[in-house]
Design brief:
The chain is 36% helix and 15% strand. With 171 residues, it is α/β, with parallel strands linked by helices.
């Protein structure tokens, strides 16, 4: 989601993108406030998102009234509806982790639908560009850069090559 916000603001400075097991506005997380599992965008409170503070004291901890993640996710969802390929034709490589154990306290059975949705969301991320490639590493967890740094490095190298040669990512 951070990359998409960055692209909205500074897209002309971005030549290619590699997303490593990305989350998006449809990522399902447990909401303590609602006491249920829900998509990030469904946690929006219809608030105006303030500009980030570039100066001043650092945050001293989590403050629920300053948590705009749901509102940011909702804005990204609305932007994507208007612009289905917000990255244009920039090379986009999406890597997905295949090893996804259920959260603590959740059975494999009850996790099945959440896992399927997470997998679908990662495949869908490849549609952010019309020049994309998607790959799953079945042995890697969410921290793919630690579990399979070679795969991440290869994705970066492939994206850089596509930018330099003004070519499509090979499928």
């Amino acid at each position: 989601m951070n990359v998409r916000v960055y692209m909205k603001r500074y897209g002309r400075d971005v030549a290619g993108i590699v997303l490593v097991d990305p989350a998006d506005e449809n990522t399902v997380l447990f909401s303590l406030a609602a006491n249920r599992w829900m998509k990030l965008r469904e946690q929006a409170k219809d608030r105006t998102i303030p500009q980030p503070h570039l100066l001043g004291p650092l945050s001293t901890g989590y403050k629920p009234d300053e948590d705009y993640l749901g509102d940011e996710a909702q804005q990204l969802d609305l932007h994507r509806l208007k612009s289905p390929h917000p990255f244009g034709n920039r090379p986009l490589f999406v890597l997905a982790a295949g090893k996804r154990p259920p959260p603590p306290g959740m059975t494999e059975d009850s996790y099945r639908d959440l896992k399927r949705l997470a997998d679908e969301n990662r495949v869908q991320a490849a549609t952010l560009s019309t020049n994309s490639k998607f790959s799953t590493d079945l042995a890697a967890g969410h921290n793919m850069q630690l579990d399979d740094p070679g795969m991440v490095a290869k994705a970066v190298s492939d994206a850089v090559t596509a930018v330099r040669e003004n070519s499509r990512l090979s499928k």
